[in-house]
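Service request form, structural biology core

Requester: graduate student, group of Dr. S.
Request type: structure prediction, single chain
Budget code: on file
Notes: please return the result as structure tokens.

Sequence provided:
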Amino acid sequence: MFADVNGISLRYEVRGSGEPVVLLGGFGANAGFWEPMLGDLDGFRIITMDNRGVGSTRYDGEFSISDMADDVDALLERLDVGDAHILGWSMGSQIAQCIAVRHPDRVRTLTLVSSYLGFPARADYILLGLTRMALEGTAPEDCLAMAVNALCLPESTFEELRRKGLEMPVPEDMEGPEGLMDQLDAMRAYSGEGLESISIPALVIHGRRDAMIEPDNGAAVASRIRGSELLMVDAGHSVPFGMYRDRFLGFIGQRRFGASSASSRADSTRRGTRRRTPRTPAFRRTPLRGPERRAAIP
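Core staff response, request fulfilled:
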């Protein structure tokens, strides 16, 4: 589905019914990034979208994190959603931060995964350089995908693949470097201004083995938001949802259903679930359709 908002054509998906939950992806991640975790969110109305720069969303010109936050606000207005639980990963956490600052009435709870204030210099150096080379044609786009895999996944993932005699695959259909450069420009310009004004219940989640955004970045975000909770997990930049599913469901449940209902919901989703391999952005030019091909994911 598409919504004409803020001068762009925003592609989005809505699944299920119940409490609205908005999922915001990171650099290079379209709406399909969230497919593997949707089954753990039965009983919620899940809203996902292709941010500017990826997927099928159509836009013209440069944009900022604030522009993407305003896109979410306008989409929720179009969908007649008063407020929602907002979960953002990586760049999506910047968008979520900005929504909470610019549109606090839209946010019922705020969950920030692999979050940061300003984009770290090492990741900036690697991703900016490789994206620029892909634009210039001096390096294949596969190099950028390999760098993202290396930054997003922990050493243990690559060790396991090597033991099995396998290599980390790269996606067959990548997002264009033009849109990725636009996203990088937006990320590099954002500094987390106004977080001290947030009074919304906030949960900050970060991997202890995050090579792209070191753990002290998540702690810095949590220190800027009054009353926020900080959860450190044994993961890299792409944190498997199974590592924080119960905490997340309990967190949002306490703010709407009450602690007892939240516990019941967490218990019901825990049965039959398994820990999943962490994901990295797929860099696909088009949103996923049907069963997902595991392009960049072992």
